[in-house]
Amino acid sequence: MTDDQMTAADAFAALLAGNRRFTDGTPLHPNQDAARRAETAPSQRPFAVLLGCSDSRLAAEIIFDRGLGDLFVVRTAGHVLGAEALGSIEYGVALLGCPLVVVLGHDSCGAVAAARGAVEEGAAYHGYVRDLVERVTPSVLAARSAGRTGDHDFIDVHVEQTVDVLLERSRVLANAVAAGRTAVVGLSYQLSDGAARLVTARGLEDLSV
């Protein structure tokens, strides 16, 4: 199956399979050779848009065992959504035809920790870091109001909130999901073992979370 024939379910399965290879220590390193470089030079047809945290330990092509032309990656600290990130995601869906959008959070996220520090301890931040923290703070408040107080709870809620905000703010993506052309999933990555766990899904109702 070529990348442009993948459904959202196919794309999700491919990512999970790659992540299992990565955690098992048996990566295939697909699409990382000269032939793939030549094949993708004229155009790209990635099978997934991945909105992930900028954390240096969260390199998407490595942890999902993929290669050139497979993933359209957008990264910001704490996977916060600004106009540039939203436009990039819409580009991947509307112009490149990606059937899957992934929001990838992870444990020990510095942006979430900073937002918790601001809420729980009154920590102050300056410059654009303050703007970053303010964008994550609603997720911290939502977790606390729901009585979810574990470290993984804050990460999961922030992933869930990012998916919600993404679909609320992007009519392009919301319409694509409603029409069945695209699905959105939220994953949480564990730094210690390298496994990506499903947190939430939109448009892939057959998945259990």
From TrEMBL:
UniProt xrefs under Gene3D superfamilies: Carbonic anhydrase
Record bears the keyword Acyltransferase: no
Phylogenetic placement of the source organism: Bacteria, Bacillati, Actinomycetota, Actinomycetes, Kitasatosporales
Chemical reaction(s) catalysed: hydrogencarbonate + H(+) = CO2 + H2O
Family per similarity comment: Belongs to the beta-class carbonic anhydrase family.
Protein name per the record: carbonic anhydrase
Keywords of the record: Lyase, Zinc
EC code(s) of this entry: 4.2.1.1
Enzyme class, first EC level, given as a word: lyase
Protein task: Catalyzes the reversible hydration of carbon dioxide to form bicarbonate.
Parts of the chain that traverse the membrane: none
Domain of life the protein comes from: Bacteria
Keyword RNA-binding recorded: no
UniProt xrefs under Pfam families: Pro_CA
